[in-house]
């Protein structure tokens, strides 16, 4: 089994395969996780231009956000009502 893996990694196709796997991991896991963290941090204080950029990134990274959504649950903050 290790000989097959070594043979794949030594070929040009193996390097391309590793590159595709790395890019897919970045697109589907890393960038959406960073976007979730940033959205959670800036949601209530973002300006209009920043919010437009955030909506663009949500649209752009939607497959990854959909992939991570069952594992992350960010609830809105409670409002502070003053009487």
How are the elements arranged and paired?
Blueprint: H1 2-10, H2 12-42, H3 48-60, H4 62-68
Helix pairs in contact: 1-2, 2-4
End-to-end C-alpha gap: 70 Å
Overall tally of structural domains: 1
Order of helices and strands: HHHH
Q: How many strand segments?
A: 0
Assign a percent range to the helix content: over 70%
User: Which class best fits the helix and strand makeup?
Assistant: mainly alpha
Question: What does this protein structure show overall?
Answer:
This protein is mostly helical and 83 residues long. The protein has one domain. 72% of the residues lie in helices and 0% in strands. It contains 4 helices and no strands. The longest helix has 31 residues. The chain is elongated. The N and C termini lie far apart (70 Å). The model has no long low-confidence stretch (mean pLDDT 87).
């Amino acid at each position: 089994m290790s000989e097959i893996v070594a043979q794949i990694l030594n070929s040009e196709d193996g390097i391309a395969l590793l590159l595709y796997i790395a890019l897919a991991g970045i697109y589907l896991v890393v960038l959406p996780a960073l976007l979730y963290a940033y959205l959670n941090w800036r949601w209530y204080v973002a300006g209009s231009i920043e919010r437009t950029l955030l909506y663009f990134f949500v649209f752009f990274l939607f497959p990854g956000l959909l992939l991570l959504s069952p594992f992350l649950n960010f609830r809105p903050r409670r409002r502070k009502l003053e009487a």
